[in-house]
Amino acid sequence: MVNKPLVLVEVRNGTIREVSFEALAFANQLMKQGGEVTAALLGSDVSGLSKELFEHGATKVVHVSHPHLKEYTTDAYRQALLQIIEVEKPCTVIMGHTALGKDLSPRVAMKLGAGLISDITSFEQDEQQTLFIRPIYSGKAFEKKSVSTMPSFLTIRPNNFIKQHQPLKKNRCTNIVDLKVDIKELRTVVKETAEKMSGQVDLSAAKIVVAGGRGVKSVEGFAPLKELATLLGGAVGASRAACDAGYCDYGLQIGQTGKIVTPTIYFAVGISGAIQHLAGMSQSKTIVAINKDPDAPIFEIADYGIVGDLFEVVPLLTKAFKEILT
Ligand code: FAD
């Protein structure tokens, strides 16, 4: 029975990541008969962010401030999270299935001998048990799993659970605890962080993704895709073939060995639809495929298919959207 989940909150550039709000909504859905949802907020000065967590379903916020927690390092976060778990004794620890969650959750779970279910997209619950559903075989199938250790660890796929926001009522009491943690000498220290794609919408969290493949043919070929993405407030992504060919940065790669995205609309432009690519985008709400080959496998999973030359179709789409939006 889930009655005391703890959500590890991710903060980037002083802002709480959307997936943490989704994790709070997920935690609340899991607790059938009430309980306490604790949000663990780690950083060097994060106290100003608590209000948003209460507004998104936390009933308690644990502040953990330490200079070593300013930037994420496995070493520092692992030590801090173990101490939070020792004090808070949650039944379940929930994180986003993000680079941070994928790195941290197995390390802490292993240290505690606890079970971990990763990349959860939904769950089923009855009186006896909760079954967590996650894609396997690159999204070709789904498995249902339960976990019985205390605590257990869960990571949720971003963009799958809908965040819940309720403005804080004036008299609602908010339980904030400051927890001191002892972080021993670190083996790794972050000296500098370089933003590769400054100004670009975060691909993993984007609601609209315009992804290009080998069919885009060059760096310059991505320009119309960028124009469409910018117009729609979305992000540009790519297949591995496009990254391998040097048309764009590997940070944009979507798929089994790249990022997993679940936007509302995914434009697959000049992408054939290899299983390794589908692994990263098949859970998108609506898929629009643009390909000159009517037999391209991407059309099998597309909701809308446009057979044609992408260099003609994409500018036409941009023009049409411009007319609608302006
Ligand atoms: P292609 O398969 O070459 O397809 C190009 C498409 O563009 C074709 O369908 C063609 O008809 C179309 N096209 C060409 N010109 C035009 C035009 N003018 N207008 C419209 N359409 C046009 N791939 C990933 O994407 N992500 C991964 O994470 C990933 N991980 C992998 C991991 C492993 C272990 C392995 C073995 C492979 C992985 N791959 C991954 C590679 C994957 O198998 C495919 O090779 C890759 O996805 C193909 O990319 P693509 O669709 O862009 O290229």
Automatic annotation (TrEMBL):
Q: Which GO terms describe its molecular function?
A: electron transfer activity; flavin adenine dinucleotide binding
Recite the UniProt keywords alphabetically. FAD, Flavoprotein
- The Electron transfer flavoprotein alpha/beta-subunit N-terminal domain covers 5-201
Instruction: Write down how the cofactor binds this protein.
Output: Binds 1 FAD per dimer.
Gene3D superfamilies, per this entry? HUPs, TPP-binding domain
Task: Name one matching Pfam family.
Answer: ETF_alpha
* Biological process (GO), any one: fatty acid beta-oxidation using acyl-CoA dehydrogenase
Which co-factors does it depend on?
FAD
Domain of life (superkingdom): Bacteria
Sites binding FAD sit at 214, 239-240, 253-257, 270-277, 291
- So what family is this one in? Belongs to the ETF alpha-subunit/FixB family.
What is the name of the protein in this document? Electron transfer flavoprotein subunit alpha
Species per Swiss-Prot/TrEMBL record:
Alkalihalobacillus alcalophilus ATCC 27647 = CGMCC 1.3604
